[in-house]
Amino acid sequence: MSLPSETSATDVAADTGRAGIILAGGRSERFPTIDKALAPLDGQPLIRHVAGNLAPVVDDLLVNCRRDQRDAFADALDDFEPTFAIDPVPDRGPLVGLRTALAETTATYAAVIPCDMPSLPAAFIEYLLSRAENRTGAVPRVDGRVQPVPAALHVRAATAACEEAREQHADRLDELLPLLDPFVVPERVVRAHVDPDAFANINTHEDLAAARGHGPRADQ
């Protein structure tokens, strides 16, 4: 997929605005006692770790979530001053959440990370954004698979791909990739930049226990 046809050479030259999008609208069914995004890791909620990793490399921060999550997330991120992209209809999945967030930004590019990936260092997010320049986006290959997140996306191209996915009744983030055709960072390059453990999702209390004390290395 190429950049949208209305993007002129002048527009491409001006591609500098960056948003950070945190996808946090899920129901956290394997965290029955707490919203997963608020589960504590090394003294801070998971969502705050993700925001802290995004903030140094983006201009604005957006959080996609349900309306009932907003106040608790605002408290957890009080000094980040994020914009909240509220799902108009909850529980439609992360692809719909991404489309909701993309509609709320005027940035040219967006770095997209789920709320349960707290160890991805800012330096790698910056690298993804740099590889996305003048492309529809960039995603990593990890453990032999192309990963839909983390991702750096050209906002207009991704919005068009989300609309195409909606028309095809697709509801998973990985179904967006063939429509968007982003640059895929080879696994050997990914491993040169970051430990593969940084891509681990916190899906259960056991995952959280294993992750405690294991944030990104200082040299990343």
TrEMBL record:
Which cofactors are named for this entry? Mg(2+)
Which positions bind Mg(2+)? D116
Q: Catalytic activity, per the record?
A: Mo-molybdopterin + GTP + H(+) = Mo-molybdopterin guanine dinucleotide + diphosphate
Which GO BP terms sit in this record?
Mo-molybdopterin cofactor biosynthetic process
Q: Which Pfam families match?
A: NTP_transf_3
Subcellular location, record wording: Cytoplasm
As recorded in UniProt, coiled-coil segments are none
Gene Ontology CC annotation, any one = cytoplasm
Key word Nucleotide-binding present = yes
Function recorded in the entry: Transfers a GMP moiety from GTP to Mo-molybdopterin (Mo-MPT) cofactor (Moco or molybdenum cofactor) to form Mo-molybdopterin guanine dinucleotide (Mo-MGD) cofactor.
Q: Give the UniProt family note.
A: Belongs to the MobA family.
The written remark on domains in the entry is: The N-terminal domain determines nucleotide recognition and specific binding, while the C-terminal domain determines the specific binding to the target protein.
Q: Which HAMAP family match?
A: MobA (MF_00316)
The protein in question is named: Probable molybdenum cofactor guanylyltransferase
Q: Which organism is it from?
A: Halonotius terrestris
Question: By which gene is this protein encoded?
Answer: mobA
